[in-house]
Design a protein that fits this description.
Elements (H helix, E strand, L loop, with lengths): L2 H14 L2 E3 L11 E3 L1 H20 L4 E4 L8 H6 L1 H4 L1 E6 L6 E3 H27 L5 H7 L1 H22 L3 H10 L16 E4 L3 E3 L9 E3 L5 H5 L2 H7 L6 E10 L14 E11 L4 H17 L8 E5 L9 E9 L2 E12 L1 H10 L5 E3 L4 E3 L2 E8 H12 E5 L5 E5 L10 E5 L6 H13 L4 E3 L5 H11 L3 E5 L3 H4 L1 E6 L5 E5 H12 L10
Parallel strand pairs: 3-9, 19-20, 19-21
Antiparallel strand pairs: 1-2, 4-5, 4-6, 7-8, 9-10, 10-16, 11-12, 12-13, 13-16, 14-15, 17-18, 21-22, 22-23
The structure holds glycyl-adenosine-5'-phosphate (GAP).
The site of glycyl-adenosine-5'-phosphate has 19 residues, from β10, β13, β16 and α13.
């Protein structure tokens, strides 16, 4: 994948109504985007896939919808006021601002690329007898480079743990890291920047009215832990899921909808008995990877990346990374959050947030394993994996979005072959029959081939053509987006057939 693909996805998204720059008539607002008519459908379908997998398919997971504004003490308790910072550094010449940790990570990524090139070359040279692990462990150049990476990681980790920002700057200087845009090495000191957006409540001004836009949806779940546990008579282990907006004043928001200041999260906090968290952490890692893989984008697009620098609340954490057009990047996090959050809320609220275990007759604060995925990132992953330009057998070109059928914004297009002879009326009857269950579109404009191309470009899995024979044989032709194969189906079987081809059920053979 490449930057070129990202550019194509961005312009395709705008041309077909998936994503527009926010307030574009005023020249847009940096890193803010609006989802258009097809984007909103795709987003809803991703949400539905996630909600079904989490809430409907698990008897012990329920969903909530908490408010974005929360009592400010929430953020004191959660640690976000004190610790939700990114280390920031400016280049004095270019006046550009960077995250110090990202500059270091990018430097490491360059060394990793060199290692991978050597491995690929060797694999070609040795063919079937190539043992990658042995090569990585014994090749002098690779061993040296891996040592460099380990040393950088170690220095960065201890500098951050000691909150020694001067040491982070020295590391950047020692590595000779330059401004990626201008090559200048003239850096300011590194300083911490809190990512929460502040605003004021009602007419109160000054510190007493300060309120924050939530930087994660998770805290809305923690503060409702006991409400849900008691009102739902939930027994450990159980989960609370939520989909909603989160806000972060990112130092650099970039790469289209990958990093935004306003975005949406789908999070699930799984409350477990202390001591069992490791087992559940492994369970959710696997379950979430399966959820992604069930979409059928193929092998090699996902990988785990364990965190070296753990967030202030985590005991173990991993990212599910996706091979975006810009390379492998975080799509989802799975975190073992211990009892940190509930204990902190107990302390700051003076309310007990315990679980009474009927088996052991003990009360304790549950541990939590969290899964947290960015909806916008999932949207970008889906579009970039789905976007394809193809040359067909007859030499013509088509752009097709191979979006997994259950996620496709439009499930079927109903196309009368021509605009007369009663075909439009028949097509509209079929539209009516399907539209309660699925988002379907009617299109009678242009030659049928051009209509197919338009539907391919927005990822519609099925085109249903009504022709003159339909009026007598009561059957239609269904064209498949991916194979372009056509089959004749009786109208009486159509609803069942469409449901089978585009329904969510097909994703649940391997997803949990
Ligand atoms: N509650 C844990 C939590 O918020 P996180 O790793 O900071 O963890 C979880 O965020 C997910 O939210 C990420 O994996 C990513 O998909 C998404 N996300 C985070 N920051 C984002 C941003 N600025 N723009 C878009 N998505 C973002």
């Amino acid at each position: 994948m490449s930057d070129d693909l990202l550019k194509k996805v961005i312009s395709h998204s705008k041309e077909y109504g998936f994503v527009f720059p926010s307030s574009e008539i005023y020249d847009g607002l940096s890193a803010a985007y609006d989802y258009g008519q097809l984007g909103a459908e795709l987003k809803n379908n991703i949400k539905q896939y996630w909600w079904t997998a989490m809430v409907r398919m698990h008897e012990n997971i329920v969903g909530i919808d908490a408010s974005i504004f929360m009592h400010p003490n929430t953020w004191k308790a959660s640690g976000h006021i004190d610790a939700f910072n990114d280390p920031l550094i400016d280049n004095k010449d270019s006046k550009k601002r960077y995250r110090a940790d990202v500059l270091i990570e990018d430097h490491i990524a360059k060394i990793e690329t060199k290692i991978n090139k050597d491995v690929t070359k060797a694999a070609k040279r040795f063919g079937d007898s190539f043992d990658e692990q042995q090569f990585r462990e014994t090749n002098g150049r690779i061993v040296d480079r891996q040592k460099q990476i380990d040393e950088i990681n170690e220095r960065f980790k201890s500098a951050m743990e000691a909150e020694d920002l001067a040491a982070v700057k020295t590391l950047i200087e020692d590595l000779g890291i330059a401004d990626p845009d201008t090559g200048s090495r003239n850096w300011t000191d590194v300083r911490q920047f809190n990512l929460m957006f502040k605003t004021e409540l009602g007419a109160v001004s000054g510190d007493s009215g300060v309120i924050y836009l939530r930087p994660e949806t998770a805290q809305g779940i923690f503060v409702n832990y006991l409400n849900v546990q008691k009102s739902g008579r939930m027994k450990l282990p159980f989960g609370i899921a939520q989909i909603g907006k989160a806000f972060r004043n990112e130092i650099i928001a970039r790469q289209f909808i990958f990093r935004m200041r306003e975005f949406e999260q789908m999070e699930m906090q799984f409350f477990v008995k202390p001591g069992t968290q490791e087992k559940w952490y492994e369970y959710w890692k696997e379950a979430r990877l399966n959820w992604h893989k069930a979409l059928g984008f193929g092998d090699g697009l996902h990988r785990f990346h364990d965190h070296i620098k753990l967030a202030h609340y985590a005991e173990a954490a991993t990212d599910i990374e996706f091979n975006f057009p810009m390379g492998f990047k975080e799509l989802e996090g799975v975190h073992s959050r211990t009892d940190f959050d509930l204990k902190q809320h107990e302390e700051h609220s003076n309310k007990k947030l315990r679980y009474f275990d009927p088996e052991t007759q003990e009360s304790y604060v549950p541990f939590v394993v969290e899964t947290s995925i960015g909806l916008d990132r999932m949207f970008l992953a889906t579009l970039s994996a789905a976007y394809q330009e193809e040359t067909l057998e007859d030499g013509s070109q088509r752009t097709v979005l191979r979006i997994p059928a259950p996620l496709a914004p439009v499930k079927a297009a109903i196309l009368p072959l021509i605009k007369k002879d009663g075909l439009p009326e028949k097509a509209r009857e079929i539209l009516k029959m399907l539209q309660l269950e699925h988002n379907v579109q009617y299109d009678e404009k242009d030659a049928i081939g051009r209509r197919y191309r338009r539907q391919d470009a927005i990822g519609t899995p099925l085109c249903i053509t009504v022709d003159h024979d339909t009026l007598t044989d009561h059957a239609v032709t269904i064209r498949d987006r991916d194979t372009m194969a056509q089959e004749r189906i009786p109208i009486a079987d159509l609803a069942r057939c469409v449901q089978e081809k585009v329904g969510l059920a097909q994703l649940f053979n391997s997803a949990s």
